[in-house]
Amino acid sequence: MDVLQAVSQTLDQVKAKKPLIHQLTNFVTVNDCANVTLALGASPVMTSDPAEVEEMVSFASALVLNIGTLNGQLVESMILAGRKAAAIGVPVIFDPVGVGATALRSAAAERIIREIPLAVIRGNMSEIKTLAGINEGIRGVDSTAGQEQGEAVAQSLSKRLGCVVAITGPVDIIAQGDAVRHIENGHPLLASVTGTGCMSTALTGCCCGVANPFIGAIAGIAVMGVAGEIAQQSLKENEGLGTFRVRLIDAIGNMTTQIIQKYAKIR
Amino acid sequence: MDVLQAVSQTLDQVKAKKPLIHQLTNFVTVNDCANVTLALGASPVMTSDPAEVEEMVSFASALVLNIGTLNGQLVESMILAGRKAAAIGVPVIFDPVGVGATALRSAAAERIIREIPLAVIRGNMSEIKTLAGINEGIRGVDSTAGQEQGEAVAQSLSKRLGCVVAITGPVDIIAQGDAVRHIENGHPLLASVTGTGCMSTALTGCCCGVANPFIGAIAGIAVMGVAGEIAQQSLKENEGLGTFRVRLIDAIGNMTTQIIQKYAKIR
Amino acid sequence: MDVLQAVSQTLDQVKAKKPLIHQLTNFVTVNDCANVTLALGASPVMTSDPAEVEEMVSFASALVLNIGTLNGQLVESMILAGRKAAAIGVPVIFDPVGVGATALRSAAAERIIREIPLAVIRGNMSEIKTLAGINEGIRGVDSTAGQEQGEAVAQSLSKRLGCVVAITGPVDIIAQGDAVRHIENGHPLLASVTGTGCMSTALTGCCCGVANPFIGAIAGIAVMGVAGEIAQQSLKENEGLGTFRVRLIDAIGNMTTQIIQKYAKIR
Prior knowledge:
Chain A has eleven helices and eight strands. By secondary structure, chain A is of the alpha/beta class. Chains in contact: A-B, A-C, B-C.
């Protein structure tokens, strides 16, 4: 089965199985993450209190950890939920938002990587390079190095951690060990709406709830890229970022395997 | 006065009196709850710090408690605000989101029911059946039982707690003791947008700020159902969940007594 | 250079420099504040944990403090971030949401004013009058006094605190000592969407990241007023508050110096 068929099957499975996706995420984009989860056909639960995350994740098909607005208690909740998920075979998807910017974020990311077996890490080029540096015990990895280095970094980090590593950007890179896929969808407007990275991670969580992590990451990220293109193409005169964001949810909710097979550029 | 006239009068009163509705709610849908409150003509305040909730609720016309994203401090704030509300005659509307899913939620709901005199409880079938079980000291009430049992459960819980009990679903059931009303509005798309249940509770809060709890719950839930129908009917080709959510707020903001009298199916 | 030219230059500079705007704000409107920041061309970071705010603000071009949903820890974070900002010359913009409503808010506002050198305070008439009263040690300033008193209050508070004071309302008043500007843009619908005040403060933060506080406040508030007019004028039959809010973001994202120079009524 080729990758496009596997992605299509994954989207069909999300709609058929409606997996529960437990997301410990930031308070800026939490509503958007819940809405894209519903739009794809899955079911979101966003609770993060340490007193209930272990119980809640036991009903879930995937767990998403996003450190966009971190605090000490939230890290504890992430560790509790992550360990429980690992113990019962629920895949964990990690979004290291802003890692490297502060000591708190780097320490949290380091702890999550060390203590929780991850299925997928999804970040931008700078975040993934920073993670690679943390993991090697080297600070100050050059986060401005070009796209061409991204593939090597993603493969290397993937092998070391034994998980899928996805770098999203103008061309997305998804690596599982030596295997690599590139996705050439999306639109620059996506960078001007808050939370589109978080939403990609949420969609990846939905897909990992019904497919293996490599296909799950490819599917989730491809859906966001194709939806971004459809949303941008729909804009009429005087419409802009507010309308783009609404149409993005429209496009995710209206995504079909036909649309993915027509527009997704996965190689 | 028949129920439709009472509902119409309630909507007029919300616009005339602009009641302040204090809402201790979850961080996923809090923005939507504030916006539907404003759209109906009321005024929202969403503060939840234990240091100020008693002072704040003393200015309010209704208090909404929603346990969607619970934590220990928030439960304390809910108890403080709820006791103060009860002491000064401010009606309390309770939304037991996800009760039964975790021990934390069940314990919080039990404490709220025991310690605060409620005006209205609004939940889905599963939540209300779980509450009925908690209240009887019985765990594991069958939450999958059909719609036909809902009416009996709502009436029974209403009598036991002395408050209005509203179950929303394909057909909404609102019970005050033996008195029961059914609302046959709404659209399945409402279940694919996060927070539409929370928004129904917020609208119920607005209406309970100017009317008795039975009419308040009927009015708030009827507005959401009719707005859902109007929003769905407005969708054009390629529009979907994002646009539906925007039009839902449009429809709530544009709701008139004429529209309610034409479309509301309350029996 | 006249004020309109200075405002135009400020908007161009925001797009050219993409300043990072650190915002410690409320959980109701945080997503909207991030989105208007991006729409204007700046870059938002909304983290508020005391363990990282000092480090984060050191990368920022402006700091926004908004007490809409206050709690004890958030006040500590605001003090930490504010002191660091002051120490390194990052301008601090303060939005005293709901000050006067509770003792917690008044105490927090008093402490922020006393401990942090502010660049701009932006609030509504009632909030600014309350602040003026707190600052004079007088409680119970008449917050219902008319617009005509606003100018004197803004000038007086500006002189006493040595910062720009902006009162937004039907006619906005921006004072820096004796210098005062009025802006006659905006639309009443802005008051029916949650967070438009918070968004004005966020836009002011963006502009203060590249301009002096007086021009920054005028520019940020003028953009919101003009965008409100454009959004309202775009509404078609049956469209309402939901669509208005979307078009508001559209208009902020599509704002040009030509549009500002054509529509802004600054005197």
